[in-house]
Amino acid sequence: MTPDGLTDDISFPFDRDESPTRLLVWEKSGRWAASLRRELGEATTRPIEIRSSRMLKDELGDRPYSFVLIEAHEDNAHRVLDALVHLGEFAPLELAEDWDNVGLLVGDQARAVSRIMTCLTITPECVIEAREKSVDLIVSHHPMPFRPVKRLTTDHTVGQMLWDLARNGTAVYSPHTAFDSAEEGINQMTAQGLDLESIQPLVPREDALGSGRFGSLPTPITLGELIDKLKKFLRIDQVRYVGGSEQSIKKVATGCGSAGMFLEQAVANDCDAFITGETDFHTCLEARAQQTALILTGHYASERFAVERLADCLSEKYPNIETFASHNESDPIECG
User: Fold this and answer.
1) Are residues 279 and 192 in the same domain?
2) 19 and 86, same domain (yes or no)
3) CA distances (Å), 72 to each of 30, 42, 165, 292, 336, in order?
4) What is the pLDDT along the chain (336 residues), one digit of tens a residue?
5) pTM for this structure?
6) Based on the structure, what is the number of domains in the chain?
7) 172, 207, 215, 312: least surrounded by Cβ within 10 Å?
8) Rounded to whole angstroms, how far apart are CA atoms 250 and 263?
9) 3-class state of residue 15 by DSSP
10) Quick check: 321 and 113 in contact, CB under 8 A?
């Protein structure tokens, strides 16, 4: 079986079994595989699982295809893969930045899942919480590991956490910048939370939505009023900012996390204010020179609300799976 645009005259490296519960298919994108998997799942009323894959280069282009063996389970338990498919539809991984490390980073996609925990960043406190609450899958916004790990030992923090997670059979998935840029992702949530209109990507891409968001307020307000609106939305008490509190604001841009590099695009789009979690001193100076208000909410505050909403979304999708946002996670930066 092949998706649109491919033909059966491309040879398969292993035999095909056309039974309803075991089927070898071509996969070019997660969306197509997810759609097929959904159809098979509805037909068999049993979860479908991707058991193995082999990469083969398409003769017509540079993008690789995957051979994917799909197999039905005899039980009705949800698997790690069920959550991965839904997360891939919600925040397609092709939206992630090239430098990012996204997807399933630790674990077995065939493992049964009864508890999912979301968090912004995996910390030792989160690992302890996952163990104590018998969490099967952690959906962490920030990847862990982010950089290649040469040795998996307990001599350093990342190694200790990975060792503990693997020993306890806890899988780790990270959507990171795919979640930032998704159609209903973090930047979109922030823009909508501020009641912006005509919302567009701040850094558009030809093949996807793009990074950041910007839009216009229904009516101009002062910078002070925008800050109050933002603090209420994020449920925080304070922010840092560049600009005058009485400065008039109409067009607003947002980039969650550490997105100071998007200031240039905010200025190019004639935005009066740019919101991000954190940035460096020289970006603050540049914002002042450009007379563009800059609001820094803190990295944690700019994204934590979204992993709480993600937990709610997963609970709605899988009511039989206990899903919650980490209770042990907190902002490491205190204000004195």
Assistant:
1) yes
2) no
3) 18, 11, 27, 55, 56
4) 344 443 333 333 334 343 333 344 444 444 444 554 554 444 433 333 433 333 333 333 444 444 444 444 445 678 898 899 889 989 999 899 889 999 999 999 889 999 999 999 999 999 999 999 999 999 999 999 888 888 889 999 999 999 999 999 999 999 999 999 999 999 999 999 999 999 999 999 876 689 999 999 999 999 999 999 999 999 999 999 999 999 999 999 999 999 999 999 999 999 999 999 999 999 999 999 999 999 999 999 999 999 999 999 999 999 999 999 999 999 999 887
5) 0.78
6) 3
7) 207
8) 16
9) coil
10) yes
Could you tell me if 122 and 206 lie in one domain?
A: no
| Residue 219 shares a structural domain with residue 190 | yes
Rounded CA-CA distance 14/129 in Å is 43
**Do residues 140 and 104 lie in contact, with contact meaning Cβ atoms separated by under 8 Å?**
no
Cα gap 110→139, rounded to integer Å:
16
Establish how many alpha carbons lie within 13 A of residue 87's alpha carbon, considering only the half-sphere containing its beta carbon: 32
Please say which residue of 76, 98, 121 terminates a domain.
Answer: 76
- At 146, which CATH number? 3.40.1390.30
Instruction: Indicate if 198 and 156 belong to the same structural domain.
Output: no
